[in-house]
């Protein structure tokens, strides 16, 4: 007899029978349940694994049923969110919401209510005033702005803009032109003129008055557009088209990513960024676009590659588009976000559905560096990103129907302290102190950038973290040399130091020796003045 049988037989009287009956009931229940119901959920599925270098905060007060939201950051690092929430499930009604934070406290307010509200786009003007563009009830573009504590709304173009033919709007990103006027770009699909669509911009020339004269009919536009305005007021709209009417492209191509330039209210240029072979999987989804300080356009988008969707990046340096693949992301509907920091570095945030991770990619002089922000993210179609005043990326994303905000737990260091130059015969000596803020990560070294006689700064040398001075020798006397020192940690380069300049001189050492030999108060004063003139 087995030990377990012996134990059951030794259970006294009625109590033993009750225990046996309970065991039989439990076995019966287990046989009826699927195997998955018997497996206990582990801790990893209940709590999100800690992602290296990022803190993720869920915002429980905001539960948008729409996966689309928008984000901007003010000059004082206040975050502003625009999103759509469902406020009546029985009689479906949507609300356009605005939220902004004061530290960890969020102020939430309703902007507008309608049966359908989609694709809000939020921007801040030069005074950090919030302005939003959105699609309302499928067929109307609306513009929202705040006067005091009251939200105002305008129907862009009035009712005549949508009357007379069946049509709808796909997306309407908003930006400001060089005169500070709100400009909304749009893609308007004409169902009765299929496959033709209309791409255009609406400029707010006065309160309630919009100039809609810039419109371009395009064949086969099949995807949402992205839009930006450079410092000279040139507008760039990037969209997806079928190039079958382009005589310069053979029929093997089904889709093309195109760039349309608009300036002075007129369309003046069209170029092709990327082409895709004709197959059922040729598909391009919404991307992101921005201009850097030199007026170079940067575009990120997701498209099918040969076998799997890819995150691609394109830039128009040297008046031609150059593209590269950043990552294979598995799922076509994810939307990337892009931002640029004060040093011109490109930041991308996107979902890689191959392993369900939210990723951050940074492009600097050394190439692309990718890190994991958060795990267990699947089909998060909306990712947004901004850069704060300390050049730290802030990423917003939807997870479990809630908005989450991710911030780096470590970041790039601040400027080096007490940076100064001393010049002599054929040399310049650099001295500096460690930055006041190491970004929460140990300083791994310093990089010195040098420019000669007004030329651009280039990386001259990298030194170990314990080094605080460097002598640049073998220089030409009378030539001006420029220097910048920057601290580096695990997040990359920190804030650049001020740029200092010096000219080596063959008379420096002789003059300093003569000053040192002077005696008396007058000699000391003269020495101080000469030394100050030589110290740059």
Brief synopsis:
The chain is 11% helix and 49% strand. With 536 residues, it is mainly β. Residues 1-14, 27-51, 244-252, 278-283 and 508-536 have low confidence and may be disordered.
Characterise this structure.
The structure is a single chain. Helices cover 11% and strands 49% of the residues. By secondary structure, it is mainly beta. Among the domains are: 3-38, no CATH class; 417-505, Immunoglobulin-like (Sandwich); 506-536, no CATH class. α5 (508-517) packs antiparallel against α6. Strands 10, 11, 12, 13 and 14 form a 5-stranded antiparallel sheet that branches.
Helices, strands, pairings?
Blueprint lengths: L2 H7 L3 H20 L2 H4 L4 H4 L7 E5 L10 E5 L5 E10 L4 E10 L2 E10 L2 E8 L5 E7 L3 E8 L2 E6 L11 E3 L4 E3 L5 E9 L5 E11 L2 E11 L6 E4 L5 E7 L11 E11 L2 E12 L6 E8 L5 E8 L4 E7 L6 E7 L8 E4 L5 E7 L4 E8 L2 E9 L7 E5 L5 E7 L2 E7 L8 E8 L2 E7 L11 E8 L5 E6 L5 E5 L7 E9 L2 E2 L6 E3 L5 H10 L2 H15 L2
Antiparallel strand pairs: 1-29, 2-3, 3-4, 4-5, 6-7, 7-8, 8-9, 10-12, 11-12, 12-13, 13-14, 15-16, 16-17, 17-18, 19-20, 20-21, 21-22, 23-24, 24-25, 25-26, 27-28, 28-29, 30-31, 31-34, 32-33, 32-35, 35-36, 35-37
């Amino acid at each position: 007899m087995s030990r377990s049988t012996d134990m059951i037989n030794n259970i006294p009287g009625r109590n033993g029978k009750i225990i046996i009956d309970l065991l039989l009931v439990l076995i019966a229940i287990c046989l009826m349940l699927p195997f998955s119901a018997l497996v206990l959920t582990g801790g990893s599925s209940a709590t999100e694994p800690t992602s290296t270098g990022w803190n993720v905060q869920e915002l429980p007060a905001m539960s948008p049923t729409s996966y689309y939201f928008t984000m901007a950051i003010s000059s004082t690092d206040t975050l502003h969110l625009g999103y759509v929430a469902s406020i009546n499930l029985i009689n479906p009604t949507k609300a356009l919401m605005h939220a902004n934070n004061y530290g960890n406290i969020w102020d939430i307010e309703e902007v507008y209510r309608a049966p359908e509200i989609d694709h809000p786009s939020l921007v801040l003007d030069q005074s950090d005033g919030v302005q939003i563009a959105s699609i309302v009830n499928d067929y109307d573009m609306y513009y929202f702005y705040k006067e005091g504590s009251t939200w105002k709304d305008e129907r862009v173009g009035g009712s005549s803009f949508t009357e007379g033919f069946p049509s709808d709007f796909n997306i309407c990103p908003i930006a400001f032109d060089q005169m500070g006027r709100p400009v909304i770009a749009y893609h308007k699909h004409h169902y009765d003129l299929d496959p033709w669509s209309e791409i255009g911009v609406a400029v707010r020339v006065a309160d309630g008055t919009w100039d809609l004269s810039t419109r371009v009919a395009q064949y086969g536009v099949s995807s949402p557009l992205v839009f930006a305005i450079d410092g000279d007021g040139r507008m760039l709209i990037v969209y997806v088209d079928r190039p079958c009417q382009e005589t310069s492209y053979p029929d093997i191509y089904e889709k093309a990513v195109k760039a349309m330039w608009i300036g002075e209210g007129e369309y003046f240029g069209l170029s092709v960024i990327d082409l895709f072979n004709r197959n059922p999987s040729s598909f391009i989804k919404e991307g992101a676009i921005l201009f850097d300080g030199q007026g170079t356009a940067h575009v990120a988008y997701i498209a099918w590659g040969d076998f799997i969707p890819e995150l691609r990046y394109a830039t128009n340096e040297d008046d031609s588009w150059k593209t590269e693949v950043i990552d294979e992301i598995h799922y076509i509907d994810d939307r990337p976000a892009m931002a640029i920091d004060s040093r011109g570095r490109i930041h991308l945030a996107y979902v890689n559905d191959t392993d369900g991770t939210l990723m951050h990619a940074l492009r600097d002089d050394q190439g692309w560096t990718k890190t994991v922000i958060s795990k267990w993210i699947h089909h998060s179609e909306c990712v947004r990103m901004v850069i704060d005043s300390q050049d730290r990326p802030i990423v917003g994303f939807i997870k479990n129907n809630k908005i989450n905000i991710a911030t780096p737990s470590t970041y790039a260091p601040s400027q080096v302290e007490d940076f100064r130059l001393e010049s002599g015969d054929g040399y310049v000596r650099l001295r500096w102190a460690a930055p006041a803020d190491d970004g929460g990560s140990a300083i791994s070294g310093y990089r010195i950038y040098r420019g000669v006689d007004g030329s651009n700064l280039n990386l001259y040398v990298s030194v170990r973290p314990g080094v605080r001075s460097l002598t640049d020798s073998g220089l030409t006397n009378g030539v001006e040399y420029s220097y910048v020192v920057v601290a580096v940690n695990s997040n990359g380069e920190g804030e650049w130091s001020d740029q200092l300049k010096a000219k080596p001189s063959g008379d420096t050492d002789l003059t300093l020796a003569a000053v040192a030999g002077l005696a008396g108060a007058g000699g000391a004063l003269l020495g101080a003045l000469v030394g100050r003139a030589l110290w740059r």
